[in-house]
Each structure stands twice: as C-alpha cells, then as structure tokens.
Design goal:
- The structure is a homodimer of 408-residue chains.
- Chain A is built from 11 helices and 18 strands.
- Chain A has 408 residues and is α/β, with parallel strands linked by helices.
- Chain A has 2 domains: 170 residues, Carbamate kinase (3-Layer(aba) Sandwich); 145 residues, VC0802-like, CATH 3.30.2130.
- In chain A, the strands form 4 sheets. Chain A has an 8-stranded mixed beta sheet, sandwiched between helices.
- In chain A, helix 5 runs parallel beside helix 7.
- The longest helix of chain A is centred in the N-terminal third of the chain and has 24 residues.
- At the A-B interface, helix 1, helix 2, helix 3 and strand 3 of A face helix 1, helix 2, helix 3 and strand 3 of B.
Chain lengths: 408, 408
C-alpha cells in the first residue's frame, strides 16, 4: 500500500477505449490498497485543435490562449472520471486552480511556485483524485499553462507536494531504452537509470519524459518511474545516483542519435576576448538554437570555432555569419548540413577511464571520421557524417554490450 | 455612456466569422464609451459534442459532467477575447469560478446563490470583461452548470449584481414577434413587452429567451433587451408592467402555437378528494410532463378530467391510466394525439373584457371546434384539431390587428 501519483499522456487518453484501459489500470491499483492521485494531459491532438482555433484570430500566447488551452486537460479529467465512475470507482475531478497549483504569470510557460497539498490529500482518502496536468493559476487567479509537456512536471510537482512514494509517468513506450529500438532491434529496456543520465538522454532526444520534470524530480527527490499504459512491464525507475551505489554500475546506459543537425565551422578566427559572443550573439538573436560549441586555439593566436544548429536554420546561420565578416576579420566560414550527433551517456564513465578511447576505436574500425567531439561528465558526443549515424549506433551498442540478454 | 451586460448565444460564437462579428459589435459599443461585461455560451454544437463524449462512459450528469461541459463556454470566452485583442480591445477572460458566481451543488441544474461583483466591476474599468455563461462554482469549489440555456440567466444575474443599466441578449432573431413569422408572414416584431407576457410567451414556445432569465430579470428589476447579433435592429425591450403604464397598451401581444401535444380525456370519474392526484401521480412518476389540466364536475357527482401531455408520451400515458382502472372506477379513457394548443397572451386582457369571446367567435367563424379551454390572468389557451392550427393563428393574428404596419 503506497501513495502514488500516476500521469497519463495524450495517447493514453486519446480515445474512449484508451481511457477505459487507463480507468481499469487505476481501478486495479486502487483495489490493491494504494492511495492515488492521477494527472492527465489533453487528448492527443486536442491542444493543436485549440491552437488552430486561436490562430484564426492570430492569437499565439497570452492570458486568453492559456484560458483556452486549459480546457484540453479539463476534458480529459472529466472523461477519465466518468470512466472510473462507470467502473464503480469514487473519484474527484480537479482543475489546477482547485488544487491550487500556484504558478508565476508567464502565460504559456508558467513555472510552478507552490502546491497546497491539503485538498488532494483529503480527497485521496475516499477516492481517486484526478487532476488536470499542464496548468495552474497565478496570484491574480488567472489560469496559466506550463508549456508543452508540462503535464509531466505537474505530476512530479504534485508527487513532491503530497510526499508520494512514487510518481509513475505512463506513456506509449515500455520505458527508457539503451538506444532507439528502431535503429537497434535488440536495444534493451533499462530497469534503473539515474536522474543525471535521464537528463542527458532526454535532452538528446529520448523523448519519453520532459526534461523539466526530471530536474524537478531530482531537486525534490521524487522517485520517478516511466512505464507503458498498454502493458504490465514495470518500466524504468529513475533514481538518485547514491541509491544506485550498491548496484553493479553499467559503464554506459544509453546511446542517442540526434539527426537534423548542421555544423558551422569558422577557421582563422582572431583569438580575442568576446569573439565567441560576437559570433553567437547575432545567431541567438534570431532564436536559432545552438547545441554543441567547440573552440580550439592555436599557438599562433588564431582559433577554430565550430558549432551546431538545427538543419532548418543552417542557411540563415551562414547568412548571418557572412554579414559579420567585419567583426570576424579574415575568418573562413564553412558548413556541413549532412551530419548527425551521436552521444553515449552513463554515470559509469566518471569512474572508468578509457570509455572515450573505446568509442573512438569502434568508430575508427568502421572508418567513420569524427568531425567534432564534445564531452561532459557523463556524456561524450561526436559529430559524424549523416550516412554513418545508424551504423555507428549499432556498432557502439554491441561494443558496450548494451543489447538485451533476454532471448526473443 | 452606460453599463451594459451583453450576452451572445451559441450561434453568435459558432464560427470564427461570427466571433469576429461579435467582437466588432463589442468594440463599437466600447468605443461609444459604454462599460461592458460580455457573457458567452458554448459554440453551437459544442455542448452536444461534449455530452456525446461523456455518454461513451454512460455519464449523463454529476460533478464530472459539469466539469466537462464548463469547458464549452471557456473556449468561447477565450476565442472572443482573442478576436477582441486582434482588434486592439483590452479584455479579461473570466470563468464562473473567477467571478465568482456562487451556486448550489445541484450539478447540471445549479441555481445561482450569489455573485460577487467586485472583480467584474474593477476589470470593466480598463477593458471588456468576457465571462463564461452557464456555469458557476459551489461552496466546495466544484464547477457547476446551470442547465441548458443557463447563459441567459448568467447574464441577467451578472447584470443584477453589477447594477448594469441594461442586459442585452443577442440571438439570431430580431426580437420577440407577435407570432411565429413562419406561420404569419407579416408577424410584427414587438418593441416593448412586459416580463409577464414574456414569461407566458417563453413558456409557450417562443424560444428566444430562457424563462428562468426572465423571472430573474423581473425579480431583480433588470432591464432586458432581446436583439439580433446579425443586424442593427434595437430588438425588443422587456420591462416591468408599471413602466409601460403610459404607453397605449395593446390588447394582446402575441399568439403561440404548441404542436406535438396530445390530449387525454377521462369521463365518468368519481368526484372524490384525491382523484386528481390518483390520476396524475403515476403519470408524473414516469417523468411525463403534464401541461393543461381541466376538470368539470357535473351535478351528479361525476367528473370529466382532461389533460395534455407531449405527443411522444401519449401511448405510455394511456397505458398507465388503463392500469389504474381499479382506482378510477368506471372511468372511460379516451385520447387524441392530433391536437395543438393555441394561446393568446397579453397584459391588456386583464382590463379588457370580451377578449375570450372575441377569440372564440373568430374560431367559430372558421368552423374550428374548441376541445379544451384554459385561462390565466394574461393568457387564454385552447386545444383545437391539429389541422386547423396555423389557420387559427392567422385568423386571430388578423382579428387582433397584430400585423406589421410597416409596408414591406
């Protein structure tokens, strides 16, 4: 018997059949004696439908748009409650303002400032509390939304507020995998992963869980589990590194491949203070997201500066830099939009030397040239030619023995 | 410069084009210096769409259904605000709970208990306040709905609470007519009508305005105006009878025809206390709505008892009565489902004798047989054969000189 927060995403409440499946799962957990709060997203497609309505009046963000979008989760909560009631489960629908989930007033990307747990805790005693994800209320009682994927954050924040034993994020995948199973067919589902690894994996494109939610869970020490609505697999538990100390620590836990990137190289850049800002400032001003940044400084006071941007922004970035030729002196600008970024992630690499060299050897053995390298404490990323992306993932997955050991 | 509450129904906010039309109207009224609160219904069809979703889980009413339905108006408010903002009008979206509009906890048919005007009044100073109709919040902070058509009531209640100079109900008709223009082509739009007349007309089927809203307006002395979203006609003003004293009072203000009725006749009913309850109790238990009731008692202690029910419930009603033969002694049950109810309404009939006899003469001149008569202070209703319904309306409309005097 535990106190659990369950979160179901848009696909899990995307149809009457799916909602009944969720209701059934909730009912079973309740009957096992658990104390439950359930957080739901809008039905898949609903938020886009609402945004399309708003766009007819050129409204993209603001108080009215949040007022609009908040209805999406409200509908899901109502329908899940109806389904639960049809199965004889007592339940209590709650909108963000009813909890209340206090936020700041940044409409469309509000941050949760406080959750008063009393209403939820009291109602959990005699039934299942079903709460709208993704939304809250600011100090002036305006409805706010947390931005895309904010329902994960709502769930974790609620779990922290009520001191839940576990926060379970139900999705349409079985958990977190060592790599994309579409690339490596025997990719293994991880039973346990640390917050830090999850953060690196989430940021790299393993989109099972919103990165803000993982940060929140780490900061408030909420035990987080990612699992599938559509089967009984226990999923992946996300824990603090210390908690995992006793376990045999895998060297690396996952490999990710980020496509749709492009690389920009500036050579012969004068090595003077502020040059990086001169280059990246005008790029950031255009809201172009810069990912990897690498700079080498030669002994002659001339630097090479390389960074990556989304492929879609490649042409614009090159144009911006060409317009900067005055500031950049005689820099030579070149670029490549046929690249991918490949990363291996694992807290194990902190204590085991040689992971980087093993990675580079594996790639070399396949004659894959590395065009850029960047490392963090628990991650090594390389940029390679696009055409080698999936081959490289497969080779590394095998080399680091990440594959499933269960015979299929 | 006045303080106005404007209410727009589902058709008026049923599409982006309609919403822009509404926004334009609101903007003009604001620019004329009026202080405005706007109440909106759900987009036409939206409430039914939501109910269909709930019905997939056999949910028809209760806390969760109100939680669901309330999203309909929330969407309308958000879209109207977006449209107003696109025209440069400052506006403030408000849900029922934000006002707050306090109600009891009868989900699906909640009654408004109190409206705190401060939030609305304060926000009206610097912009247009746009409020969800049809909904409120109970003492436990649950979302409630007022039932179908409740948005009219919301508007009137808000007008009463903030002491508005006028409450304007915008619909898709020009106002209240002397009779259905589809029956009488030169039916006249009434410029002024009393609350009492409106109540009788609304109850009889002139469905421009919810009856609860009219009662509310009368009780709180709110000046009410019914007008069209889609033209500039000033519509029909609904006022207190005393206010109209100085006007030349028309004898009657309207004629209504209620189809889909059936008549049940019991003859030879024993005239004893409780017999009416014995007859109607079992009918009411089946939720069959009884409209007219007429009883004649003969000198021999034997009564005739006649009443009307919706045509759809005719067969069931006859069956119920047949099962009551024990209590009803030797009563003879007969019925007729080919009838209509025709009513003339007017406060003028209080002071003018002879309206009833004029009505009966007009019908007699057309050889129309009257099967049942029932009167109230300002209304006379008759039941006649279905096939004569529209003919009777036309003859009476002419006889009482209700037609439009404006040449077309």
């Amino acid at each position: 018997m535990a106190s659990l927060v369950l979160k179901f995403g848009g696909t899990s409440v995307g149809s009457a059949e799916a909602i009944l499946l969720v209701a059934d799962k909730v009912k079973k957990l309740k009957e096992e004696g658990n104390s439950l709060a359930v957080v739901v997203s809008a039905m898949s497609g609903e938020t886009n439908r609402l945004l399309d309505l708003a766009n007819k009046f050129k409204a993209e963000k603001g108080k009215a748009v949040d007022f609009l979008l908040a209805t999406g989760e409200q509908v899901s909560v109502a329908l899940l409650c109806s389904a639960l009631e049809s199965l004889g489960v007592i339940c209590h629908p709650m909108a963000g303002w009813q909890v209340p989930i206090q936020t700041d007033n940044s409409f469309g990307k509000a941050k949760i400032t406080e959750i008063t747990p009393d209403n939820i805790v009291n109602l959990m005693d005699d039934g299942v509390v079903v709460i709208t994800g993704f939304q809250g209320v600011d100090q002036s009682n305006n409805i706010t939304t947390l931005g895309r994927g904010g329902s994960d954050t709502s769930a974790v924040a609620i779990a922290a507020a009520i001191g839940a034993d576990e926060c379970r994020i139900y999705t349409d995948v079985r958990g977190v995998f060592t790599t994309d199973p579409r690339i490596v067919s025997d990719a293994r589902k991880l039973d346990v992963i640390t917050y830090e690894e999850m953060l690196e994996l989430a940021g790299l494109g393993a989109k099972v869980l919103q990165i803000r939610a993982v940060e929140f869970a780490r900061n408030y020490n909420v035990k987080l589990r990612v699992l599938s609505t559509f089967n009984e697999d226990p999923g992946t538990l996300i824990i603090d590194e210390e908690e995992g100390m006793g376990m045999e620590q895998a060297l690396i836990s996952g490999i990710t491949l980020k496509k749709n990137e492009a690389q920009i190289m500036l050579s012969n850049v004068p090595d003077r203070p502020g040059i990086a800002a001169d280059i990246l400032g005008p790029v950031a001003e255009k809201n172009i997201e810069v990912d990897m940044i690498v700079q080498n400084i030669g002994s002659n006071g001339i630097a090479d500066f390389t960074f990556t941007v989304p492929k879609l922004d490649f042409d614009e970035t090159v144009m911006i830099l060409n317009n900067l030729s005055n500031q950049l002196g005689g820099s030579i600008i070149s670029g490549d939009d046929k690249i991918v970024k490949l990363s291996i992630v694992g807290v194990g690499m902190r204590s085991h030397a040689g992971i980087a060299s093993k990675m580079f050897s594996v790639l070399a053995a396949e004659n894959i040239n590395i065009k850029m390298i960047s490392t963090s404490e628990i991650k090594i990323s390389v940029v390679i030619e696009e055409k080698y992306g999936e081959l490289a993932v497969r080779c590394l997955h095998t080399a680091f023995e990440l594959q499933s050991t269960i015979s299929k």
